[in-house]
Amino acid sequence: MTETAENYDATKYERPSVTVDVVIFGLRSGRLHVLMVQRKHWPYAEHWAIPGGFVNMDESLEMAARRELEEETGVHDVYMEQLYTFGDPGRDPRTRVISVAYFALIRTEEQALQVSDESNDVCWFPVDELPKDLAFDHEKILRFAIDRLRSKLEYTTLAFQLLPKEFSLPKLKRIYEEILGEQLDKANFYRKLRDSDLLEDTGKLLNSRGRPARLYRFRDSRIEGDFVFRYREAKKKDEQ
Amino acid sequence: MTETAENYDATKYERPSVTVDVVIFGLRSGRLHVLMVQRKHWPYAEHWAIPGGFVNMDESLEMAARRELEEETGVHDVYMEQLYTFGDPGRDPRTRVISVAYFALIRTEEQALQVSDESNDVCWFPVDELPKDLAFDHEKILRFAIDRLRSKLEYTTLAFQLLPKEFSLPKLKRIYEEILGEQLDKANFYRKLRDSDLLEDTGKLLNSRGRPARLYRFRDSRIEGDFVFRYREAKKKDEQ
DNA sequence: TCCTAATAGTGTTATTATGACACAAAGTAT
DNA sequence: ATACTTTGTGTCATAATAACACTATTAGGA
């Protein structure tokens, strides 16, 4: 640090504001949704925005993100990771604001929403039916988050964080298809999962329309470890 | 943003300082090195640190990172990407400092170093022979950067940014081995590259000890596109 | 009750990718 | 010339993948 190396004077530099914004993903009736809040005040009053807020001086960035998440949804102990930091000058008309974006994956069935008094409304939107004219650069942040989620799906077990504790293979497959935006082959998908040894049969069955689906749960050992479930259907290059 | 939605008062919140730190990677005689500066002043005087500095109010984060890089090495127009943002309270004893870390890959043959007047010294260190007691949490940042570089090697063409414009396959292979820390099979590595169609034969040869090596260059079309060169030697799982 | 639709789940096979390793080629040093 | 060093290619057994046909088990209606 060339300048922090100096005899430090806290007032020497003008400081930007730092916020955290949290892109909250969840499944609702099998479709990927994202949680948005509608702003009350200037700037971007009435526009939809990603929930977020200022970082307190004594909390870590992740703590701040979890605090925001809990304020908005009441949930804690969910999967969360840092996404990217957005800090272009002018992204907020009030002052220089640097925003550390996180994304969270939650099991939506598990809780209700709480409208904070800072916003008109809170709402889930399907990721492909987002409202128009999002506040600030939040559309960019959202696209970034969706891209990241999509690409991490290929080499991690992220998708499982969106499902209830017990789930069927068809349901898992539909999530992959929903997020990746392409159809997968049932047989190959199931085989890959069987071979991965990620899942544990609960013995239970889930009745629906046709043949009942077997319910599985995760082997915790696998989630915690450095194990990755790499699913890719090879996407033939259309070159040559 | 719950709170930014408010009638905004710039003085309402205490603000952290924001810096950028840049992990600069380069090859020197075939080994992966990282550029460090030795601090002059408190805190961590005499300790080695990743180059970095405050973000000006009117420049983007990436601009700030490129400015720091150029101040330290004189280079510009190099590969650079945002790594992660570190912001734990207490990571800097002076005040709350949030640091947006970037990493850059440079072709080291191409320039000399400039010792800034804020530091005692600037120096390249092999990544596996780092000095002890780095300043702040810079050891953590460095480990983070090395991990990221290593993992991105498997599915991107990052490594090419470290090499001169024209290079031989054995040299490229040695970089992969150096960064991944494992031996690769020559035949398989070459075949993968040939099939990828990433390289273009320059026709030139490079004489050394034994048989001269053929020199290649990149096809720019491939670098810019969404093409990824995925090199993985499958690392047999030792389970089952 | 029996047939059909619907959904879950398995088997099979051709093709391609991978890992291992032997071998050939083209220089330099003596 | 000959040994040595380094570059570069060929081959083959094995594993992973994509495609697709098939079987299984339920609900619901005729």
Structural features, described:
Two copies of one chain form a homodimer. With 240 residues, chain A is α+β, with helices and mostly antiparallel strands. The first copy, chain A, has two domains: 17-152, Nucleoside Triphosphate Pyrophosphohydrolase, CATH 3.90.79; 166-224, Winged helix-like DNA-binding domain superfamily/Winged helix DNA-binding domain (Arc Repressor Mutant, subunit A), CATH 1.10.10. Chain A is 24% helix and 28% strand. The first copy, chain A, has five helices and ten strands. Chain A has helices spanning 61-73, 138-153, 169-180, 186-196, 220-224; strands at residues 17-28, 31-39, 48-49, 52-54, 79-86, 97-106, 119-126, 167-168, 199-206, 213-218. In chain A, the strands form two sheets. In chain A, strands 1, 2, 3, 4, 5, 6 and 7 form a seven-stranded mixed β-sheet that branches. Chain A has a three-stranded antiparallel β-sheet with strand order 8-10-9. In chain A, a hairpin with a 2-residue loop joins strand 1 and strand 2 (31-39). The radius of gyration of chain A is 21 Å and the shape is elongated. Mean pLDDT of chain A is 86; it is low at 1-8 and 233-240. Chains A and B meet through strand 1, strand 4, helix 1, strand 5 and strand 6 of A and strand 1, strand 4, helix 1, strand 5 and strand 6 of B. The structure holds a DNA duplex (30 and 30 nucleotides).
